[in-house]
UniProtKB/TrEMBL annotation:
Pathway assignment: Cofactor biosynthesis; adenosylcobalamin biosynthesis; adenosylcobalamin from cob(II)yrinate a,c-diamide: step 2/7
Catalysed reaction equations from the record: 2 cob(II)alamin + reduced [electron-transfer flavoprotein] + 2 ATP = 2 adenosylcob(III)alamin + 2 triphosphate + oxidized [electron-transfer flavoprotein] + 3 H(+); 2 cob(II)yrinate a,c diamide + reduced [electron-transfer flavoprotein] + 2 ATP = 2 adenosylcob(III)yrinate a,c-diamide + 2 triphosphate + oxidized [electron-transfer flavoprotein] + 3 H(+)
Residues annotated as domain Cobalamin adenosyltransferase-like: 3-173
Transmembrane segments: none
GO annotation (BP), single: cobalamin biosynthetic process
Similarity section: Belongs to the Cob(I)alamin adenosyltransferase family.
Subunit structure: Homotrimer.
Entry's EC annotation: 2.5.1.17
Keywords linked to the UniProt accession: ATP-binding, Cobalamin biosynthesis, Nucleotide-binding, Transferase
High-level lineage: Bacteria, Pseudomonadati, Bacteroidota, Flavobacteriia, Flavobacteriales
UniProt protein name: Corrinoid adenosyltransferase
Any one Gene Ontology molecular-function term assigned to this protein's record: ATP binding
Length: 191
């Protein structure tokens, strides 16, 4: 299989279903940002972190491929002529969202209560989590804008929202595991 097809040389690309759109289309930006997020999560997974976090991150990366596939599908071609879904894969569901919530609850049970915003940083691995969190928020914003134009399964949008929360809590957990200092943001008062 050749990697280069030359079909995008004039600035268009094909959605799942064959529809061609400009490469700057919000749908492409949405799933491209999800792909970027997936790469950042791979970077976190490559760090020296606990096995459970690595296991959950692999699961998340798998789900992000599903999110990308949903976003890459032309809604007008999402259903085949025989009535079946073009995407013949499990979609994001409530259980996927609940897994993130459960993992956040477990991590939070072992963390000190937050009293202030926390400045990103303290350790390279923690910073990678914060970068992934920010990319996830961007993916969510783009997907939200796309959803207004062409709705898709709302679990997909909800998953991105919950994932950014998960990445924040993971950053705090890893700060604790790595004994990195969490620097509180305490704004200076005007005099």
């Amino acid at each position: 299989m050749k990697i280069y097809t030359k079909t995008g040389d004039k600035g268009t690309t094909a959605l799942f279903g064959g529809t061609r759109v400009p490469k700057h289309h919000i749908r492409i930006d949405s799933y491209g940002t999800v792909d970027e997020l997936n790469s950042h999560i791979g970077l976190i997974r490559d760090q020296e972190i606990d096995p459970r976090s690595k296991e959950i991150l692999v699961h998340i990366q798998d789900k992000l491929f599903t999110v990308g596939a949903v976003l890459a599908t032309d809604p007008e071609k999402a259903t085949l002529k025989n009535g079946k879904d073009r995407l013949n894969i499990p979609k994001i569901d409530e259980e996927d969202i609940e897994l993130l919530e459960k993992e956040m609850d477990i991590m939070n049970d072992h963390l000190p209560q937050m009293t202030h915003f926390v400045l990103p940083g303290g350790h390279t691995t923690v910073s990678y989590c914060h970068i992934a969190r920010c990319v996830c928020r961007r993916a969510e914003r783009l997907a939200s804008a796309l959803y207004e134009l062409e709705p898709f399964d709302e679990h997909t949008l909800k998953y991105l929202n919950r994932l950014s929360d998960y990445l924040f809590v993971l950053a705090r957990k890893l700060s604790s595991d790595l004994q990195a200092e969490e620097v509180k943001w305490i704004p200076k008062k005007l005099e």
